[in-house]
Design brief:
Chain A: Pfam families: EIIA-man. The complex is a heterodimer. Chain A is an alpha/beta fold. Chain A contains 5 helices and 4 strands; from the N terminus they run βαβαβαβαα. Chain A is globular, with a radius of gyration of 13 Å. Chain A starts with 7 loop residues before the first strand and ends in a 7-residue tail after the last helix. The chains are: A alpha/beta, B mainly alpha.
Chain lengths: 136, 199
């Protein structure tokens, strides 16, 4: 399956470092497969802690291959900003969804699943299922 | 009737009061939030007035949808998408009329507040901006000054509440005894209507 059909993943965090590192982590766990397009959107445009609508929109556009874009967000304003952008209708590529998932575990599940060529609902389900992995 | 200039004045008046009260908003946000509410809104509303001046939207709906869009893009905290959604949804509800009645504006603002509640999941009593906006809406039929009084009263009334949304909710009972910064800034927005009307 060609890269052109993989679901794109956007990781939105209050921190640029968190978003970039989780993206690296998830990519590293794909193994021998073909990693899907992943873009971090962390922090504000000025490099501080917070959320940038511009960075989110740019990240989503950069990973859109026509198969949909799964967006994972960490907290508060990151979640609200993605939801507000989705509600506007024209700010994010068609087929962009906010995935309800834990940030790190969900990102790994989403990226590994997307690497298999799975479609957006399957990527979303895999990421959401990460909520059920109990640790104790 | 309310024209585009009225809504421009509303945004300018709100920007000025946010500017004036930024330190107080941030101080309110320090014990129960992350101490950025004043500076975030100041950045947002400064950008709103600059953009309104540059793009000169010529209907009430266009003024508010543009202002909302700018807030979503520039605030950088949760108040950006929340206030942005409030203004955008209100603006969209106003359509492209050149002038709107106070009744039509009140109905549109209610759509905006409903959209904020849907976005953030907050209900009255959760210690949020909703606790200022809903009483203001309910009083709006009696005029802007009545709405301002209701909004200010609503903001003060958040003090004994326990936060159930956002970062302050992590504090549980320790959030009690602090006036909510979001409800306070929302009362500044409502007060801006009185100034815009020149009352």
């Amino acid at each position: 399956m060609s890269d052109a059909e993989l679901v794109g993943i956007v990781l939105v965090s209050h921190s640029a470092e968190v978003a970039a590192s989780v993206a690296e982590l998830a990519k590293g766990l794909v193994g021998g497969g073909n990693a899907p397009p992943i873009a971090p959107a962390g922090g504000t445009e000025g490099g501080g802690l917070g959320t940038s609508a511009e960075l989110i929109a740019a990240a989503a556009a950069s990973v859109d291959r026509g198969a949909g874009v799964a967006v994972l967000a960490d907290l508060g304003s990151a979640v609200l900003t993605v939801k507000a952008l989705l509600a506007e209708g024209d700010e994010l590529p068609d087929g962009t969804r906010l995935v309800d998932a834990p940030f790190v575990e969900g990102a790994v599940a989403a990226v590994v699943t997307a690497a298999t060529g799975a479609d957006l609902p399957a990527v979303e389900a895999a990421a959401a299922e990460a909520y059920t992995y109990r640790k104790v | 009737m309310l024209d585009a200039d009225f809504f421009r004045r509303w945004m300018t008046a709100t920007a000025a009061s946010v500017d004036r009260e930024a330190e107080r908003l941030t101080a309110l946000d320090s014990p129960i939030g992350d101490a950025d509410h004043g500076s975030n809104l100041q950045r947002g509303f400064t950008a709103v007035t600059a953009t309104l001046e540059k793009e000169a939207p010529d209907t009430p709906g266009a003024v508010l949808t543009l202002a909302g869009r700018v807030l979503i893009s520039t605030v950088g905290g949760a108040s950006g998408p929340l206030y942005g959604t409030l203004l955008r949804r209100t603006g969209k509800a106003l359509g492209d009329a050149a002038e709107v009645s106070e009744e039509r504006f009140a109905a549109a603002l209610r759509e905006g507040v409903d959209a904020v509640m849907a976005l953030g999941g907050a209900a009255p009593g959760d210690k949020t901006m909703i606790d200022s906006l809903v009483p203001a809406l309910d009083a709006l039929g009696d005029g802007f000054a009545a709405a301002r009084a209701a909004a200010e009263e609503g903001a003060v009334a958040t003090t004994p509440l326990q936060a159930r949304k956002g970062r302050a909710s992590y504090l549980g009972e320790r959030s009690i005894g602090h006036q909510d910064p979001g409800a306070t800034s929302a009362s500044l927005l409502v007060a801006g209507l009185v100034e815009a009307a020149g009352e």
